[in-house]
């Protein structure tokens, strides 16, 4: 009889600090999202009546109409109000981007969906994509989607691409066969951090007055530039008025509820909510509660305006510290009351969900990638952690939600008490905070983006792990992940995809006659060919995006220099405009594969290229000894320069080939390296590989994480391997490590853990994130998901509820090497 393995629990545990928070938290965990048609209907109705208006007026007017007419909802016990939907955890859709709903309702399968088995949990009930939907919403969404069919961004972009790109069909095949992922028309945007402090400290009415002054300064319209700027300012005013109306509507709803409320305490709370909503975000916030509500209205309205993920609060402990400090000094707020508001904010952030086509859902991991940043330095270079920073961490311990994630800008000179609080939060095992190298990011923004020192110091991780300058840099658009092992597979197979038999590229080498250096050179050439087309296609797509008026005036008003220039954020209006990027996946697998080829085919000559290819072609069936030999080849993550330097070269190649094309606003495309959950999806599209990986199995996660189970020399060796990669050449890297809770137990374990991170960053590492969880707990959660509704894990640059992940994604997390000591 098998003996059940004992589960090592987490050392640090938290629970909601008040019964109010506990009720909101339990409702969040117990409810499933539903699709809401309301926003799509309101937006489409407005556009139909204003189709011929200039795009700025149309965009601003449409947002005002939507925000002014969405049904205001205030849920039981709330102190922070404002939701995207009339349904709790409701999901809005955006058919003007892509009318994918028509495919979804007809259950039409895209060709690339053959690879998604195991990436998503199976769900029952009437659904659009993966989310539930009521019959009345289905009918309304069908109606508006039919209106947008042929007029949406995807349809118009593909029309232009077909007319102007001779290789359109070839690039389509690359996408269908997962050489790189299809352009995400259904969820393209996000990854931005606006100037929330401007909303809190100035109020939107002040910005409206500035815009009116700009209109007055234009005077008569004597040029197209005058005309465009006039419409830009008018449209932006309408958008800001819409946000104020949204708040006013919630004030009215709070007053209505107070009028029928029989419980005196709740009635007083509702009247206070109404007072605050009448004040902010139109006017400056004075109290901490007002500032929290002002922030939240800005944040949720950005999510309503922008069809994207990664809209991040940024340096929350900096812009919220003034009202917190002032209230605390006056005695008008306690730490306990502030903590309750911060915990409620975590629930509000997790209410927000996005709906996409099923294929897109298969690699996004169920996250919205909201990222709260703590620590770092202020504009003068002084360490910036404070009392509020620690409360944000405690809220993350107490309320284990998958949104927002927390990031810390790590430095040696942060206070010891703050570092210990960071470690406590990591020990709680929800996968946050991730840690980032403060000095490296600041220096990169100065050297690569050209930011001045003060602006460069005001950076924060955005979305998953990409760097962003708060309130001053263009939102990040990305070409979805490139499948680097698939590109390498094409090189090994004469340009033919061995999974489908289709010829996808022409090669310039004979593999059997080529030297190792020639093979690497051909991989670089093919990689550059494919990445160039990705970027050039995206440039054309973004030109269509801007021309049809997807310009987001509310967001633009909160990004520096757009108002001064009279130009929206996607057209070069921001102070810095270089964040467009391409993303790699699986470069560690490419490096490990090249190491095996170099060692056995070229250095030792103990096998031929044909022998290796034949074994790979047969997925190692009948070639088990050869596979074992390949698995024993040097593997990245063990401080072995033989393979580590190959991985370094792969990332240097990625950085070089990614930056050869200029983006649509005149700046170079940038290289990024993160996986979300594409390491699972992309792996399914690849055959077996020379590193010993089987066909269809997942790839290495993140960017500089070891392939699960191959880092056998301990955490220090893994860190030494990771810090050899030239992180300063990349817009991001992502590094996963996993420890058993016993490994960093107690104060002694915490101090060792702090030293480990100090060492990693002093060696030049950019980012690291941890799962502090017993493998046996994850296995038990697979068997008994009903017992683990609040079990969170770090997947890529985000935290997810473990039981919501697809089974193959769960397996990938479980199989990561778990260290039992430092």
TrEMBL record:
<keyword id="KW-0456">Lyase</keyword>
<keyword id="KW-0556">Organic radical</keyword>
<feature type="modified residue" description="Glycine radical">
    <location>
        <position position="797"/>
    </location>
</feature>
<dbReference type="GO" id="GO:0005829">
    <property type="term" value="C:cytosol"/>
</dbReference>
<dbReference type="GO" id="GO:0043722">
    <property type="term" value="F:4-hydroxyphenylacetate decarboxylase activity"/>
</dbReference>
<dbReference type="InterPro" id="IPR051215">
    <property type="entry name" value="GRE"/>
</dbReference>
<feature type="domain" description="Glycine radical">
    <location>
        <begin position="702"/>
        <end position="822"/>
    </location>
</feature>
<dbReference type="Pfam" id="PF01228">
    <property type="entry name" value="Gly_radical"/>
</dbReference>
<feature type="domain" description="PFL">
    <location>
        <begin position="19"/>
        <end position="694"/>
    </location>
</feature>
<protein>
    <submittedName>
        <fullName>4-hydroxyphenylacetate decarboxylase large subunit</fullName>
        <ecNumber>4.1.1.83</ecNumber>
    </submittedName>
</protein>
<dbReference type="Pfam" id="PF02901">
    <property type="entry name" value="PFL-like"/>
</dbReference>
<dbReference type="InterPro" id="IPR004184">
    <property type="entry name" value="PFL_dom"/>
</dbReference>
<dbReference type="InterPro" id="IPR001150">
    <property type="entry name" value="Gly_radical"/>
</dbReference>
């Amino acid at each position: 009889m098998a003996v059940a393995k004992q589960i090592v629990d987490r050392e640090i545990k938290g629970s909601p600090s008040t019964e109010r928070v506990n009720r909101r938290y339990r409702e969040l965990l117990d409810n499933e999202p539903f699709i809401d048609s309301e926003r799509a209907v309101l937006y489409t109705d407005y556009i139909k009546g204003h189709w011929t208006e200039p795009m700025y007026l149309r965009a601003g007017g449409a947002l005002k109409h939507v925000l002014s007419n969405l049904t205001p909802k205030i849920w039981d016990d709330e102190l922070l109000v404002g939701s995207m939907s009339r349904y709790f955890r409701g999901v809005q859709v955006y058919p003007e981007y892509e009318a994918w709903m028509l495919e979804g309702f007809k259950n039409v399968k895209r060709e690339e969906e053959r690879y998604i088995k195991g990436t998503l949990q199976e769900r029952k009930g009437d659904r659009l994509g993966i989310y539930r939907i009521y019959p009345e919403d289905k009918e309304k969404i069908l109606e508006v989607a039919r209106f947008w069919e042929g007029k949406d961004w995807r349809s118009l972009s593909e029309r232009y691409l077909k007319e102007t790109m001779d290789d359109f069909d070839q690039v389509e095949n690359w996408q269908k066969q997962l050489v790189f992922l299809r352009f995400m028309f259904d969820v393209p945007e996000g990854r931005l951090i606006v100037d929330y402090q401007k909303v809190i400290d100035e109020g939107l009415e002040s910005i409206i007055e500035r815009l009116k002054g700009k209109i007055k300064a234009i005077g008569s319209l004597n040029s197209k530039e005058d005309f465009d700027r006039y419409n830009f300012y008018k449209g932006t005013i309408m958008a800001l008025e819409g946000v104020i109306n949204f708040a006013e509507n919630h004030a009215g709803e709070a007053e209505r509820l107070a009028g029928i409320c029989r419980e005196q305490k709740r009635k007083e709370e509702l009247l206070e909510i109404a007072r605050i909503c009448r004040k902010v975000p139109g006017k400056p916030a004075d109290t901490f509660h007002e500032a929290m509500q002002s922030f939240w209205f800005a944040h949720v309205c950005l999510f309503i305006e922008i069809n994207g993920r990664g809209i991040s609060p940024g340096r929350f402990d900096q812009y919220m510290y003034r009202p917190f400090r002032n209230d605390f000094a006056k005695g008008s707020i306690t730490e306990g009351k502030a903590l309750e508001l911060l915990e409620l904010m975590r629930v509000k952030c997790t209410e927000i969900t996005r709906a996409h086509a099923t294929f897109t859902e298969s690699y996004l991991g169920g996250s919205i990638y909201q990222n709260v940043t703590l620590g770092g330095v202020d504009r003068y270079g002084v360490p910036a952690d404070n009392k509020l920073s620690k409360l944000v961490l405690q809220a993350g311990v107490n309320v284990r939600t998958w949104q927002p994630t927390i990031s810390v800008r790590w430095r040696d000179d942060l206070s010891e008490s703050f570092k210990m609080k960071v470690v406590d939060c990591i020990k709680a095992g929800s996968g946050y905070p991730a840690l980032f190298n403060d000095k490296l990011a600041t220096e990169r923004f100065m050297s690569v983006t050209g930011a001045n020192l003060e602006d460069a110091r005001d950076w924060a991780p955005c979305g998953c792990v990409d760097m962003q300058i708060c309130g001053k840099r263009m939102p990040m658009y990305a070409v979805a992940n490139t499948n680097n092992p698939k590109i390498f597979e094409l090189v090994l197979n004469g340009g033919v995809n061995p999974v489908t038999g289709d010829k996808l590229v022409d090669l310039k080498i004979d593999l059997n006659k080529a030297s190792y250096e020639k093979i690497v050179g051909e991989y670089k050439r093919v990689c550059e060919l494919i990445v160039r087309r990705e970027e050039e296609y995206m440039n054309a797509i973004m030109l269509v995006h801007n021309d049809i008026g997807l310009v987001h005036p509310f967001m633009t008003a909160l990004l520096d220099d757009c108002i001064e220039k009279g130009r929206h954020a996607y057209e070069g209006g921001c102070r810095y405009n270089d964040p467009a990027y391409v993303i790699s996946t699986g470069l560690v697998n490419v490096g490990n594969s090249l190491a095996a080829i170099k060692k056995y085919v070229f250095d030792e000559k103990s096998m031929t290229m044909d022998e290796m290819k034949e074994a790979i072609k047969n997925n190692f069936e009948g070639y088990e000894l050869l596979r074992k030999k390949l698995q024993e080849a040097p593997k990245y993550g063990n401080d072995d320069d033989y393979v580590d330097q190959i991985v370094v070269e792969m990332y240097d190649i990625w950085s070089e080939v990614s930056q050869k094309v200029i983006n649509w606003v005149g700046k170079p495309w940038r290289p990024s390296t993160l996986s979300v959950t594409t390491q699972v999806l992309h792996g399914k599209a690849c055959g077996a590989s020379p590193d010993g990986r089987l066909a269809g199995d997942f790839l290495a996660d993140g960017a500089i994480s070891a392939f699960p189970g191959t880092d056998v020399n301990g955490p220090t060796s893994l860190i030494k391997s990771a810090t050899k990669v030239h992180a300063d050449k990349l817009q991001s890297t992502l590094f996963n490590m996993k420890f058993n809770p016993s490994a960093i137990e107690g104060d002694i374990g915490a101090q060792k853990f702090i030293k480990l991170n100090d060492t990693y960053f002093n060696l030049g590492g950019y980012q690291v994130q941890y799962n502090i969880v017993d493998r046996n707990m994850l296995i038990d959660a697979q068997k008994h998901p009903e017992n683990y509704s609040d079990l969170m894990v770090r997947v890529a640059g985000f935290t997810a509820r473990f039981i919501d992940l697809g089974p193959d994604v769960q397996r990938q997390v479980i199989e990561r090497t778990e260290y039992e000591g430092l």
